[in-house]
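Hey, I was hoping to borrow your eyes for a little while. A protein chain has come my way and I'm curious about its shape. Take your time with it, there's no hurry, and the full record follows here:
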Amino acid sequence: MSELKRTPLFPEYADIPGVRCIDFGGWELPVQFSGIHKEHEAVREAAGLFDVSHMGEFLVKGPQAESFIQHVTVNDVTTLVPGHAQYSAMCYPDGGVVDDLLVYKLADQSYMLVVNASNIDKDWEWLQQHLSEGVEMTNESDHTALLALQGPKAEEMLAPLVKEDITTLGAFHFLQNVELFGASVLLSRTGYTGEDGFEIYLPSSDAPAVWKGLLEHGAAKGLLPAGLGARDTLRFEAKLPLYGQELSKDISPLEGGIGFFVKLNQADDFIGKEALLQQKSSGVPRKLVGVEMIDRGIPRSHYPVFAGDKQIGEITTGTQSPTLKRNLGLALVDSSFAAIGTEVEVDIRGKRLKAEVVSVPFYKRARKGADSK
């Protein structure tokens, strides 16, 4: 059995009472520090600090970097200027998803791709297979740490700590070479919680000082360290997809609810475009919808969803919403049953319980800052 990988901050966890770590895709990561609901509430009302250093970072450089990324991702990378980022996905020729990712334009002919931790090796291999002349790729994942400061008070916590004016930094915009507790960081107004916030990319060796500095500075304003459990409930309420649940090699971006980011009208061909055009013209066979339980029960991943005697899909993610106190789920269902108000049944441990298709996202904040993967 292979040893679990650890982030540069693993030694710091020991200083936090109540921390509980789990095996997450081969990484030993904190599922909670003080409790999932407490951390979730802190992010919705003040701020939480996440260690997401397990994510992958690839640098892509060269005169053909833009055209290469345009070919392997579904969004239109030609719209980016230095200092801007976009959410996107990579697809297989049949339209299934290799991974969803963020694309940062660092400079002309220079980009950073941020991919899911469990997909780092697979994504690297996929990109290498399609690499063209005039493109140089380096895998910086092992040398890069990533902290996510998320919540309505994130800006007021961070602003006094940096020289730059971050109050005017828009969603999906970022600043490079920002000094923070002695480290030079890339500061991005992005996140994965449905709240305003920032993601901080920095050298792994600098991560402990920045982690401790932020927690110490933000404590008086309600900042808490937050784990994977709260990250999942927060992103779920905001209908932000998780690879392997809402997106996969068998679930296209159109089915998984991120069709807005698929630019089918662009002139350039990208891998999977033909299949996705066909899927759109024929009608997307399945749709990701929200469901709310009518009967008492909590929907969980992979629970079957029925309409009458017919199974029409399954729950991709489900829980009792900590913010809304309702039993909710995201479900991938036959498109003919996707209309809001449609009554369905969820099979919970062999018992069919009534539920209803409802609008998503379940939670939506007043817009101000960032909201992405």
